[in-house]
């Protein structure tokens, strides 16, 4: 039962353009969402997060949007750079959990072409 | 240390053998997590430690899997009688207090042949 889904296994964009990575979830108890970025042979690194009381959170080139009614979140990267090429995972945390037990999506491979 | 350190980075083992995977969290981090990533899958939660105790072991797939943490620091994940379906990258992460953006190690790639 995949509670967090990233339906696009891969995404290819041109340098300087916008990258939009999507994530859907099914569990309405999730109330905190995160994006992680992973390079080959490295562990995932935390990128940005959003609480369910917000619909947008911005950090430099990265913006996460949350649509609670649609149970959908997206990560926008503007402008995209070749160094952004990596696997991106979205993750969700269940409300009321006092520790970071995260449910992850399958990941989307982003390739940014120079 | 500066980051979360895991060893070995790669492990190939024969089916039926036991393996031990080690995690050295960031010094002072009280929370420690084990996840695994099987081919084509997302990260799957295995176990959570707060200090030396494990309040949540719900993700351990079977009783062949166990983990311990000593001194509020190093953790070992043990898999007994390994099976081919245990092949995956095992990732450890740590955080200070309740911090969901925790720090992962580079993982141990386990291959059971």
How would you sum up this structure, described in words?
- The complex is a heterodimer of chains A (114) and B (113).
- Chain A contains no helices and eleven strands.
- Chain A is an all-beta fold and 114 residues long.
- In chain A, the strands form two sheets. In chain A, strands 2, 4, 5, 9, 10 and 11 form a six-stranded mixed β-sheet that branches. A five-stranded antiparallel β-sheet of chain A has the order 1-3-8-7-6, with no helix packed on it.
- The model of chain A has no long low-confidence stretch (mean pLDDT 94).
- Chain B is an all-beta fold.
- Chain B is built from no helices and eleven strands.
- In chain B, strands 2, 4, 5, 6, 9, 10 and 11 form a seven-stranded mixed β-sheet that branches.
- In chain B, strand 7 (65-69) and strand 8 form a beta hairpin.
- Chain B is globular and about 40 Å long.
- The model of chain B has no long low-confidence stretch (mean pLDDT 93).
Keywords:
heterodimer; A: 114 residues; six-stranded mixed sheet; 0% helix; B: 113 residues; mainly beta; seven-stranded mixed sheet; four-stranded antiparallel sheet
Question: In short, what is this structure?
Answer:
The complex is a heterodimer of chains A (about 110) and B (about 110). With about 110 residues, chain A is mainly β. Chain A has no helices and 11 strands.
Cα distance, first to last residue of chain B? 33 Å
Tell me the span between the first and last alpha carbons of chain A: 38 Å
Shape of chain B: globular
The helix/strand series of chain A, from N terminus to C terminus, equals EEEEEEEEEEE
Mean pLDDT of chain A: 94
- Average predicted local confidence, pLDDT of chain B: 93
Q: How many E strands of chain B? A: 11
């Amino acid at each position: 039962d995949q509670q967090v889904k990233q339906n696009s296994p891969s995404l290819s964009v041109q340098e300087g353009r916008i990258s939009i990575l999507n994530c859907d979830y099914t569990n309405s108890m999730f109330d905190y969402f995160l994006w992680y970025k992973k390079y080959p042979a490295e562990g995932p690194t935390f990128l940005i997060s959003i609480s369910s009381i917000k619909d947008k959170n911005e950090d430099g080139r990265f913006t996460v949007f949350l649509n609670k009614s649609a149970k959908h979140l997206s990560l926008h990267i503007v402008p995209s750079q070749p160094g952004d090429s990596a696997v991106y995972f979205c993750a969700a945390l269940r409300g009321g959990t006092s520790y970071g037990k995260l449910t992850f999506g399958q990941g989307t491979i982003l390739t940014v072409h120079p | 240390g500066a980051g979360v350190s895991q060893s070995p980075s790669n492990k190939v083992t024969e089916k039926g053998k036991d393996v031990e995977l080690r995690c050295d969290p960031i010094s002072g981090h009280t929370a420690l997590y084990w996840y695994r990533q099987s081919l084509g899958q997302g990260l799957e939660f295995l176990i959570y430690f707060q200090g030396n105790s494990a309040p949540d072991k719900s993700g351990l797939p079977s009783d062949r899997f166990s983990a311990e943490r000593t001194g509020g620091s190093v953790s070992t994940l043990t898999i007994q009688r390994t099976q081919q379906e245990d092949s995956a990258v095992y990732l450890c992460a740590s955080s200070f207090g309740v911090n969901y953006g925790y720090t992962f190690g580079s993982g141990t790639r386990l291959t059971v042949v």
